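Q: Got a minute? One more chain.
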Amino acid sequence: MEITVIQNKIYEIRGQKIMFDFDLAEIYEVETRVLNQAVKRAIESNL
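A: Always. Here it is, folded:
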């Protein structure tokens, strides 16, 4: 994936740069649900 494509998926909201979960899932070529589950597991394992 080209860097410009990724840069176009970065939004600035209230001064914070963010990416939406569905855009990240597309980049990693997984379903949004699977990406969110992985994030949730990673957060829980660091508590």
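A: The mean pLDDT is 95.
Q: Perfect, thanks.
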